[in-house]
Amino acid sequence: MERSLGEGPSPSPVDQPSAPSDPPDLPPAAHTKLDPDFGVPPAGPGAGSEVLAVLTSFARRLLVLVPVYLAGAAGLSVGFVVFGLALYLGWRRVRDEKERSLLAARQLLDDEERLTAKTLYLSHRELPAWVSFPDVEKAEWLNKIVAQVWPFLGQYMEKLLAETVAPAVRGSNPHLQTFTFTRVELGEKPLRIIGVKVHPSQRKDQILLDLNVSYVGDVQIDVEIKKYFCKAGVKGMQLHGILRVILEPLMGDLPIVGAVSMFFIRRPTLDINWTGMTNLLDIPGLSSLSDTMIMDSIAAFLVLPNRLLVPLVPNLQDVAQLRSPLPRGIIRIHLLAARGLSSKDKYVKGLIEGKSDPYALVRVGTQTFCSRVINEELNPQWGETYEVMVHEVPGQEIEVEVFDKDPDKDDFLGRMKLDVGKVLQAGVLDDWYPLQGGQGQVHLRLEWLSLLPDAEKLEQVLQWNQGVSSQPEPPSAAILVVYLDRAQDLPLKKGNKEPNPMVQLSIQDVTQESKAVYSTNSPVWEEAFRFFLQDPRSQELDVQVKDDSRALTLGALTLPLARLLTTSELTLDQWFQLSGSGPNSRLYMKLVMRILCLDSSQICFPTVPAAPGAEDLDSDSPTAGSSVDALPQPCHTTPDRHFGTENVLRIHILEARDLIAKDRFLGGLVKGKSDPYVKLKLAGRSFRSRVVREDLNPRWNEVFEVIVTAIPGQELDVEVFDKDLDKDDFLGRCKVGLTTVLNSGFLDEWLTLEDVPSGRLHLRLERLSPRPTAADLEEVLQVNSLIQTQKSAELASALLSVYLERAEDLPLRKGTKPPSPYATLTVGEMSHKTKIVPHSSAPVWDESASFLIRKPHTESLELQIVPHSSAPVWDESASFLIRKPHTESLELQVRGEGTGTLGSLSLPFSELLEADQLCLDRWFVLANGQGQVLLRAQLGILVSQHSGVEAHSHSSSSLTEEAEPWGGLPHATSSAPELRQRLVHGDSPLEAPVGPLGQVKLTVWYYSEERKLVSIVHGCRALRQNGRDPPDPYVSLLLLPDKNRGTKRKTSQKKRTLNPEFSERFEWELPLDEALRRKLDVSVKSSSSFMSRERELLGKVQLDLAEIDLAQGAAQWYDLMDDKGTS
Question: Cα–Cα 20 to 30 A to 444, which of 77, 712, 723, 882?
Fold first, then answer.
């Protein structure tokens, strides 16, 4: 006779045949009374125990009054008592709900067990043998086995926690050295299996089982940290979910099954009752947060794509493949649109019905994507694409939830679910799916991408992806799975301490991290990481082995993924030597690449633009008709629609206020200030301002420029630090979304610094859009000289975009072999190098590169091409910021590996300035060799809309009506007409004739924001030549009546010229009223000889600042005179 589940705990887990059974109709509550606080049977009868229970209850009630007494003794207001009471009541309510939920779940399971036991014999006796059951079957026999094994499993868990987990916790942190498990009991309620489903597997060497598990247990686990007198624990838990069990591989030897894999297909539901210090986790708001954190830990261990592997035989092959198998496939989800959504927005207390602001959440397992929000629309068009990895078919589902975005809580609009097995069966699904729980439909296009170990398919896939419209990320051509196994002989930390190694794996801007293995230099990770690849021919895997603090690098490895394309099965399984590490430090990894291929019956390859006659190809060509057929020579380049659409963001760091003081002296007794500086990060670039010493309200006034695209979601990361000798202190951070700046073109705000008690930062951002007109160039150069700050680099006046497509007729190597050329484009100090496409006679890169050039008049652009044939195709683009287009050029070089230069090209920007729309698009013949290249170069003038300049002409109509100044232009005194006056004045055709000693061109004005007098020396013309050779002129400036070194400034010296160009800026800090009392003495001098300190005066001019309009700051030519004329 089986023991009733309603009875109290038996001394033995084995059924007692002699124990009388209870009537089945009585509920469990009729047999035993549960304590309301603990949910367990009370102590045995007796007067002593009853008295003790009454005293304990009275003491608990009395303890409630202790906080009230303490609050009154401390003189606290009644509000503190009310707040504490409200917090306690909320905790008590959550606690009672959890206990009621546990009791109800136990009651349900008890009733189910009793009903099953009552009707089991009847079912076996009355049902005929031919009656079939559904595929989800009851497994009461399995539950009996689990109940029998449960006490012994509890003994195993107690040993595991005490002997393995507790030492690991104590070793992970010095504060946990007294951590111990004081109580480990799994309780009397075992895990139950509600149903079992066996799936017919496509593979004969595996068995798939789905177990619907439900655990409503009275588990009790208590821990203690004796050092801090801290006790915590768990008392009662609910866990419900579907556990998949895979038995593989099946073998011909005992035990028949090689290993057992277990994982949850979807995140299970969890409810926990806490005890001790962890009672605080039942406070409203913390309860769901704590359960979520626990679920995240379970998901990291037992939810797809993670799984638990238990090998049943020693030396099992491909353990890593079993622990983290390759995905079954990839589903490309095109979230296109929705229609007929319900309206959730209401106005005037519901009297006026609005629309909705819908967005969609797309989930497959743990992979979640969120679409953008479409404002005020019931039929939104998203047009977004996501790619998800599918690990189990059947089992996983595609879930799409649509919400209405609101400031407080988003409204639910509907949900749809679809089994991924239907996508696998159909290949491509394109349909409208109804939303459950709401109204409307959602339009999805679902594509199943198979994983192929065939590198020859890559070219075809890349060609197909060029015609795929994908946002926000480009479509992937392959996936990479990295099995991180172990490392050996990593270097030790300082003091010969064992490191705590972890690994960071990065491909472009995607980084994943492994767990940390503590106190060893030969760690074993056994983890898998998965990456999507857009073009594996040019991407690299960067591996960094670090200590868990991330401050110490233990070794590094960079692996070009093109190497995998030449291996068998696209797989590398070996040891890799680490660089920057010990001599014997190495890392064992297995890398598997798979090409993503859509079913060929679903593919309709896009047509490739070609010149007339391109279709008349050789019919005997083995690749004729494929997507990579060779095309005849085109006349012009064919860049994509994004070429030349970049903008330039000008970032002006002005000042900060109320920064926190970080400097301390005399061991912290004396409080100092801070030495702040700013770090900027945007579009993969980083910038850093100068350090302002000992100032909590620093003024930087620095300008930075970066090329940006219209990709949504970009942010400017700003961080402020205090410069120190060892580690810089953090002073705050803030983020600026670029959407507003790119749309409006200008932003000027004080930003509050986050994560610090105080501090604000003043930033000014302006978007500069390139214009294909040369008429504005002179004005832009003059405006840049005015707004140029002394601390910043020279501002850009133009943006150069270069698209390099292909080369032909390059010289052969050793007369017969085609070279391996590469190309470099160079402008000044910045360059762009094309990538190598192996094993291809027509490589396509489809890359874009951006460069910030400081002095383009001294730089060049070089192109180095490394083809695998004599007719390479690059299809690359690059962008450069240009400072002085008149004096700069684009340099292109074609070189071969080991063969030197194959050809070169120099393109002066003066040709671009004379071209139509500032663009050249044609074949260019290479110099110093044979061959030609097809490229497109276009120039865009950067006109500041907030400096009063507009790109039309030099007339007044060319200037914008906006009077908002930028950077150095004073807010209170500057306006568009004033700026127009000084720009036109400098180049006026009605200029007076040049004097006998020549002229000097100056701009003098007062910058009221910085309280500085600014003078720009542009240049001189028609200087007098006294000797046989031209002079070596320079300009000296002196602010009279002072003649000391404090007010003296001078330009650089130019060699042997009568018309020197300086374009140098000088500043004096002084109030405006004092500046008006000064005179500016400007002298043009020349060095007499190398050995002499004497200087020859070529001419001078003295300007009375009171007679100059310092608010306008006009650029003007001044006649030079001798000493007598200026006295």
Answer: 712
CA atoms within 13 A on the CB side of 1067: 16
pLDDT band of 344, cuts 50, 70, 90: confident
pLDDT digits (tens, 9 = 90+) for 230-247: 777 778 777 888 888 888
Neighbours of 882 (CB within 10 A): 26
* Averaged pLDDT, 905-932: 80
Q: Which residues are paired to 617 by β-bridges?
A: none
Please work out, in degrees rounded to the nearest 5, the angle formed at the alpha carbon of residue 418 by the alpha carbons of 414 and 422: 160
Contact present, 358 and 413 (Cβ < 8 Å): yes
CA-based max dimension of the chain: 132
Q: What is the DSSP letter of 697?
A: S
Q: Is 103 helix (H, G, I), strand (E, B) or coil?
A: helix
pLDDT band at 352 (very low <50, low <70, confident <90, very high): low
Q: Rounded to two decimals, what is the model's pTM?
A: 0.45
Element (DSSP H or E) covering residue 181: strand 179-185
Residue the block writes with tokens 């394309």: 565
The pair of structure tokens assigned to 589 is: 């990894």
Residue 809 is given by DSSP the state: S
Predicted confidence at residue 296, as pLDDT, reads: 59
CA-to-CA separations, 919 to 264, 635, 888, in angstroms, rounded: 59, 15, 16
Cβ neighbours around 229 below 10 Å, total: 9
Side chain identity at residue 178, one-letter code: T
The residues with which 920 forms a beta bridge, in sequence order, are 937
Least confident of 169-183, 256-270, 816-830, 960-974: 960-974
Asked whether residue 618 carries a pLDDT value surpassing 50, the answer given is: no
**Domain 478-598 is found in CATH 3.40.50.300:** no
Closest CA to 978 of 1106, 783, 1118, 1111: 1111
- Cα 469 from chain centre: 22
SS (H, E, C) 288-346: HHHHHHHHHHHHHHHECCCCEEEECCCCCCCHHHHHCCCCCEEEEEEEEEEECCCCCCE
Hey, which bits of 7-88 come out as E strands?
A: none
The number of residues in the chain equals 1127
417, β-bridge pairs: 399
- pLDDT band, residue 672 (cuts 50/70/90): confident
Cα-Cα-Cα-Cα torsion 133, 135, 139, 142, nearest 10 degrees, comes to 140
CATH class of 998-1120: mainly beta
- Residue in 106, 155, 54 with CA at minimum distance from that of residue 273: 106
3-state secondary structure 204-230: CCCEEEEEEEEEEEEEEEEEEEHHHCE
The token duo for 8 is 């109290």
Q: What is the C-alpha separation between 870 and 806, in angstroms, rounded?
A: 10
CA angle 122, 125, 130 (to 5 degrees): 120
* 611 touches 632 (CB < 8 A): yes
The predicted pLDDT at position 658 comes to 92
Enter the tokens of residue 778.
């002179």
Q: Which fold has domain 647-771?
A: Immunoglobulin-like (2.60.40)
798-868+901-944 CATH fold: Immunoglobulin-like (2.60.40)
pLDDT of amino acid 291: 56
Element (H, E) at 172: helix 166-172
Domain boundaries, the chain: 140-314, 329-452, 478-598, 647-771, 798-868+901-944, 998-1120
Q: pLDDT averaged over the chain?
A: 75
**Residue for token digits 């089986």?**
2
- Please list, in sequence order, all residues whose beta carbon lies within 8 angstroms of the beta carbon of residue 618, skipping any fewer than 6 positions away: 624
Q: 1100, 1127 in Cβ contact below 8 A? A: no
Strands (E), 1010-1120: 1012-1021, 1033-1040, 1049-1050, 1061-1069, 1079-1087, 1095-1104, 1115-1119
CATH class assigned to 329-452 = mainly beta
Domain 478-598 and domain 798-868+901-944 have a common topology? yes
Which of 761, 688, 698 shows the shortest CA–CA distance to 728? 688
Assign residue 739 a region (left: φ > 0; alpha: ψ between -120 and 50; beta: otherwise). Answer: alpha
